[in-house]
Design a protein that fits this description.
6-stranded mixed β-sheet; 117 residues; 4-stranded antiparallel β-sheet; mainly beta
């Protein structure tokens, strides 16, 4: 079994920051260092979209155009953690954010991010 547990969501004002965390455990733990991980988000009435991804070593990252320069994905392989630092948040960033083992059907339960004044 694979468990991915997100945390760190909440309500923040426009221009604010949040840091999301994803803790991986279970059968992924032994191969975590070679797993590509991603953060997705889904806003009400919209399709789930890829926000950012990171290779196992952390050497390569990719971002959706809408978050480039504002969000940063990182990982700590020793702790089996993936992070998403979100700065300069906008109302359109409001969504449920999900951690994903890329190219698999392993997802976390999601964490709500609401950007509103």
């Amino acid at each position: 079994q694979v468990q991915l547990v997100e945390s760190g969501g909440g309500l923040v004002q426009p221009g604010g920051s949040l840091r999301l965390s994803c803790a991986a455990s279970g059968s992924i733990a032994s191969i975590f260092v070679i797993t590509e991980m991603g953060w997705y988000r889904q806003a009400p009435g919209k399709q789930r979209e890829l926000v950012a991804s990171i290779t196992g070593s952390g050497s390569t990252t990719n971002y959706a155009d809408s978050v480039k320069g504002r969000f940063a994905i990182s990982r700590d392989n020793a702790k089996k953690m993936v992070y998403l630092q979100m700065n300069s948040l906008k109302p359109e960033d409001t969504a449920v954010y999900y951690c994903n083992w890329m190219y698999t059907n392993y997802w976390g339960q999601g964490t709500q991010v609401t950007v509103s004044s």
